[in-house]
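Hi F.,

I've been meaning to write this up properly since the lab meeting, where we talked about keeping a consistent format for the predictions we share between groups. The idea is simple: the sequence comes first, exactly as it goes in, then the structure tokens exactly as they come out, then a line or two of notes. No screenshots and no reformatting. I'm using this chain as the first example so we have something concrete to point to.
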Amino acid sequence: MTAADGGQVALIVKVATQLFAALGYDGTSTRQIAEAAGLNIATVNYHVGGKRELYLTVMERAHQAERAALEQALARLADAEPVPAIHRLVDDYLDFCVDNPEIPALWMHRWLSDAGDITELERQYVKPLIAAVGAALRPARAAGVIDPDVDLDYTIWSAIWSIHGFAKGGVLDDEGRRRGTGDRAALRRFRAHLHLTLHRTLGLPGDVP
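Output, unedited:
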């Protein structure tokens, strides 16, 4: 592959990621991707295959980015005091979603049955990451730091639902205007709420760090 070809592939994937995140897989056509990239459909198909193949590439890259960030965060969790480390883990994931808003958007479209004929991604990508977080938190529960009656799976999912929802949709202020991750005050308020909610849900000792 020449440098020019590599540049076109990178552009196509970037544009496709933006469109899939905004419109969903079902709402995006190869023609839209080609036009947004300033290319023709034949060039797009030549470099990345059809829409399905391109979508799989986009989701694979999104997963790799999320996995790398999560592995780094979990590595810190293993070497720190559990309560502040758990809060740091929440912060790390929230920051990742703020910095990469297209990734929660891609997954939220799937929650709404987007790309319903592509069914393997949750098993292939999501389940291992959820299992890794659960495994990292279990020692804290065994040590009595986390309430033993807490359902860790549902707690993890609750955090994901909240963070993805805020990253994608934000909240409405008193005047009905949408405030999201680009609003520092709204982000700070959401972060504080998220920490307090998880601290109480997990039954963590002491005050919220």
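Notes:
The beta strands are 171-172, 178-179.
Residues 59-202 form a domain with the Tetracycline Repressor; domain 2 fold (CATH 1.10.357).

If this format works for you, I'll send the rest the same way.

G.
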